[in-house]
Structures are given as structure tokens and as C-alpha cells.
Amino acid sequence: MTRLTEAASGVYVIAATPFTETGDIDFNSCDRMVDHYLAAGATGLTVLGIMGEAPKLTSDESAAIVRHIMKRVDGRVPIVVGASAPGFAQMQDLTARVMDMGAAGVMVAPPGSLRTDDQIVTYYMQVAEFLGETPFVLQDFPLVTGVQISVPALARIFNALPTAVCLKHEDWPGLAKITALRKEGTLNRRISILCGNGGVFLPEEMERGADGAMTGFAYPEMMAGVVENHRKGDMERARDLFDAYLPLARMEQQPGAGLAIRKYIMYRRGILASPALRKPGAPLDPLSRAEVDRLMARLEKRLKELN
After folding, report:
1. How far apart, in whole angstroms, are the C-alpha atoms of residue 137 and residue 269?
2. Of the chain's two ends, which shows fewer C-beta atoms within 10 Å, N or C?
3. CA-based end-to-end distance of the chain
4. Distance CA 194, CA 128 (A)
5. What's residue 1's pLDDT?
């Protein structure tokens, strides 16, 4: 079993959870989705993330999704599983189950009740205690969690906990945070920094010292292309590619509608049999679908121009 380490890099796609129109899990679409992510250049997958509708799943459904994706991936890339939970008992139980299935590690976001650096550091100390030797990703997403994690707090956590191997960076604005964490002397080791927010700042994040992306934009090939061209030292090509996809990435970032847009794009691309969200969750209205269709057509035209 491959364990997540500080060397994690590339594109860890946040997997959507496909549903049928009646709200059942669509495992056939799940297979197509996994195949698409890997063909698009994903170096890892993250299952049961916030945009994977994890809170809408039962514990048995969560385990079934992980097991199914793990089987489809068949060891080709590491799998990270979102294990955030209101209590440590649930977190510990899910972690034990998915690690036994072969997961590489888990991702943990802070609960919204945390306010001070000491509270945040204490929480992650307890996370590490409950998870034991399991490596974990610290998800820093204040726009959703409401928890602001300072650079000094992150330094205390990563310097004290060897099982904290990766930061999922989704602060906004947050480019200065990447720079501060990469500054010599801030951390006692180099950790992996993978960025979210639908990839809308990915070129700048890579130049600031990020190792890649951990997010679920409906076109993961864009993120893989940006990361690969950055590695080659061709940021002009990376930015040209990024710019072509930016209108759709921006469209996906709308609060409340972003997941519906992402699933609709995946449906239009033939990856999902249905763009359905599990309730509560509303589909796109006809005008919004037409707007997305128009942007997809323009993207195809621009990609042909870029070869």
C-alpha cells in the first residue's frame, strides 16, 4: 500500500460522487469518471471531499464509494479520503476502514468552532493522536470552514506532527501564505502543498512554490497541463493553457451553484450519465445550462487554436 508523503505532487482530483436522477449512487458513471481522471493526467484522487457531497452519504455508502473507486484505480495512483467529522470516533472509524482498503491517507478540515491558534493546534494534535500512523492532509479552506489558520499555527502543526504531510491550501487570498511556508526557517521540513479553489489561481500558486493541485475542476487536463509545463519551465505555455479554461473555471467558482455546474459539464462530456445532485441540491436552470454550453463551445475553439 502506497502511503501519502511530503513528496505528493501533481494533480489530486477531488472526485465527484455520481448519482442517478432518483438519488442512488451511479457506480457505472463512477467507473467512467475514474478512467477519465486518470487519462487526463491525475497523479492521485481524493474521495469524499467537500465537493464530493460527502455529508449527504451514509457511512456505509461512503465506504462503498471508496471501495469501488479503489478497485477501479487498482493501485495506479494513491487515494486520499476525506475523513472530516464532528467527532473523533467517526473520523477514527472511517480512517481505519479506508486505510484497510488501501487508501494512501486521509484529509481533515477543522471544525468551525475553532477560533484561536492554540485551539487549532490542539485540535490537530488530537487528530494525529486518534489517527495514529495514518498520514493526513490538513485542509485549509476558511471560505467554507470559517476557520482562519495562520502561518505560525500551521508551522506549529507541521513541525510537531510527522504524520501531517500535506497542506491543502484553499485560503483566498492566500498566495502570500505559500510564500511564507516556503521561506527558509518557517518549517523544519518541506511538506507537500496542493492547492484548491477549482484551480483558478494555479499558475500563481505553482510559481509561489506549490506542488500541484487538489481540486475538482471539470477539466483536470488543464491542471495537469499547467503543472507539467511549470515543471518544464514553460510558464508561458502554462498560462496560455490556463487562460483558455479560465472562463469555465470562473463559472464553476460560483458559491452554491459550482457543483451543479461541474456535474453538468461532466455530464455534457459524457462522463456522468446524469448531472444530478443528491438533495438538498438543485440542478441548473435552462439559461444557466445554455451559458455553460456557450463557454464549452468557445473552449473547444480556443484549444484548436492552441493545438
Report:
1. 30
2. C
3. 38
4. 20
5. 67
Partners of 11 in the β-ladder? 213
Q: Is 84 helix (H, G, I), strand (E, B) or coil?
A: coil
Q: What are phi and psi of 269, to 5 degrees?
A: -85, 0
Nearest of 30, 43, 133, 123 to residue 84 by alpha carbon: 123
Q: Which three cell numbers stand for residue 101?
A: 482498503
Cell of 303: 484549444
pLDDT at 87: 94
Domain 10-234 has CATH 3.30.200.20: no
Q: Which contiguous run of DSSP H or E holds residue 168?
A: strand 164-169
Which three cell numbers mark 225? Answer: 497541463
Report the run of H or E that residue 132 belongs to, with start and end: none
Q: Mean pLDDT in runs of 10 for the chain (307 residues)?
A: 94 97 96 98 94 89 96 97 94 96 97 97 98 98 96 98 98 95 97 96 98 97 98 97 97 93 98 95 94 98 94
Structure-block grid coordinates of residue 59: 457511512
- The residue type of 254 is Q
β-bridge pairing 164-169 and 79-82: unpaired
- Residue 286: what pLDDT? 97
Nine cell digits for residue 139: 485542509
Residues 6+ apart with CB under 8 A from 282: 260
Residue among 34, 3, 11 nearest 202 (CA)? 11
Report residue 295 as a C-alpha cell.
Answer: 463557454
Q: Which three cell numbers stand for residue 240?
A: 496560455
Q: What single DSSP character describes residue 8?
A: -
